[in-house]
Amino acid sequence: MSIEHEMIIPKQKPLPKKIADDPLGSPSMSMVVGSTGSGKSVTLMNIIMALDKRHEFDSGLFVTSNNRDALLESVEMPITTSPQELEDWIVSVKQAKQGTKHLLVLDDIQGSKDFNIMAGRSFFTNFLLSHRHYGSDPNKPAEYGVWVLMTAQTLKNSYTPTIRDQIKQWFLFFPRKPTDVKLYEDLAQDPIAMKRAMMLVKNAGKYNFLFLNKHDISEDRYFLNFKDEMKDLK
Ligand SMILES: Nc1ncnc2c1ncn2[C@@H]1O[C@H](COP(=O)(O)OP(=O)(O)O)[C@@H](O)[C@H]1O
Ligand SMILES: [Mg+2]
């Protein structure tokens, strides 16, 4: 099947260069939220492609609980549905050399009991909370380490609040549930700006998402997809 990547990351247009604006430059956790069919996995593919262009990863793993997803045909990294394989990968990354890069993708595992994403303390959630340490080079902390990309169908019951607090990049499709509208607002420093940004995304139509960049701690930044910064939201 073909994916219309250009709709999300235009090939001709490079992402912003400044590190504070660059969602993909440094190791981080990113989360894509949207109901089934909203375009989460397509967005993941686009992020993976963009990451692939700018980094050479020493290892990667794509974890899913739905291995019948046709999109997986275009995934060029090892794919698994097995919590044991995820654990083995984590063990290997914990032993990785300084100055190495690793990519972990967690797609559609929210509903799977096997991965137990709401466990406060498990091998897996501990890794997410400590992922910054692995592979990183103390002299170049912004350059090496672990990139984690996740998806969730709803923010409610989706990973623990401590993990969510560490997520810098949010790709938010307009939620079906009013409870999630409120949860989206809680993510932002300015709930009113968030509300306005969400309405703009809703009006932009299907497959559009709000990209909330919390990378720059002084202020949130809002984009329609990757392309257009939304300003004057206050
Ligand atoms: N940006 C897009 N442009 C065109 N079609 C899209 C786009 N994003 C998603 N789709 C369509 O919607 C379908 C569902 O998208 P998908 O990413 O699998 O949703 P989710 O992972 O949220 O369930 C895709 O197979 C594709 O046909
Ligand atoms: Mg999907």
Tell me what you see in this structure:
The chain has 234 residues and is α/β, with parallel strands linked by helices. The chain has a domain at 29-173: P-loop containing nucleotide triphosphate hydrolases (Rossmann fold), CATH 3.40.50.300. The chain is built from six helices and nine strands. The protein has helices at 40-54, 83-94, 123-130, 161-165, 178-187, 191-204; strands at residues 29-33, 59-64, 79-80, 101-107, 145-152, 169-172, 210-213, 221-224, 228-230. The protein has a nine-stranded mixed sheet with strand order 3-2-4-5-1-6-7-8-9, sandwiched between helices. Helix 5 crosses helix 6 (191-204). The longest helix has 15 residues, at 40-54. Mean pLDDT is 85; it is low at 1-17.
Could you provide a short overview of the structure?
The protein contains six helices and nine strands. By secondary structure, the chain is of the alpha/beta class.
Structural class: alpha/beta
Poorly predicted ranges (pLDDT <50, ≥5 residues)? Answer: 1-17
**Which H/E pattern describes the elements?**
EHEEHEHEHEHHEEE
CATH architecture of the domain at 29-173: 3-Layer(aba) Sandwich
Topology:
Layout: E1 29-33, H1 40-54, E2 59-64, E3 79-80, H2 83-94, E4 101-107, H3 123-130, E5 145-152, H4 161-165, E6 169-172, H5 178-187, H6 191-204, E7 210-213, E8 221-224, E9 228-230
Parallel strand pairs: 1-5, 1-6, 2-3, 2-4, 4-5
Antiparallel strand pairs: 6-7, 7-8, 8-9
Helix pairs in contact: 5-6
Bound molecules: adenosine-5'-diphosphate and magnesium ion.
